[in-house]
Amino acid sequence: MGNEPVDRERDPETDIGGGSESESGTETETETETDGGVRAYTVRLELVDEPGELLRALAPIADNGGNLLSIHHERGNITPRGHIPVEVDLECPPDRFDDVVTGLREAGVNVIQAGEEHYGEEISVVLVGDLVENDLSDTLSRIESGANAAVLDLSLTAPEGTESVSSARVRLAIDSGRSNEALEAIRSLGSEKGLTVVEPLLGGESA
């Protein structure tokens, strides 16, 4: 492969805890061509703040031909579901990158963003109903899995308390050209849980 890159993987014993942390070495742009026909990619993950989560997330990268370059996570930057966003720089042959992403998802790792070709669009929907009673975290997880989307932002409004009807504006990142499929999956979930789905709000903009 030419010059072998330095593996900057953090010590798994320290895992995901411990404040803002960056382990980048030399600066690498997403999908920059490198020696030997491999490219550098950045994947953004969402991990639970528990021991072993980071190590579990890194295993599918190595198992599918990826070489870890750097890791950055910031405990103060919490995702809408209260998890920790982690940005991983890696390199691999272009024809193996989809295998890396698939391996992460099959391992139960939530991939928020993976390279420029993934999640090329954003949509926003408003969910109205007994969101808390219907387990909002489960609703978001099933939207992500069923619509093959990533929750970028969540705004919950409950003027009469969480035990009453509330509304949530959810901004999602989806694959380019798949907004109709994503919305259909969200409608189906809304019907199952008795939620009203107000959509679409394209590009994250309010109607």
UniProtKB/TrEMBL annotation:
Domain of life: Archaea
Record's compositionally biased regions (Basic and acidic residues): 1-13
Bias-annotated ranges (Acidic residues): 24-34
Stretches the record annotates as Disordered: 1-38
Protein name stated in the entry: ACT domain-containing protein
Species for this entry: Natronobacterium haloterrestre (Halobiforma haloterrestris)
Lineage: Archaea, Methanobacteriati, Methanobacteriota, Stenosarchaea group, Halobacteria
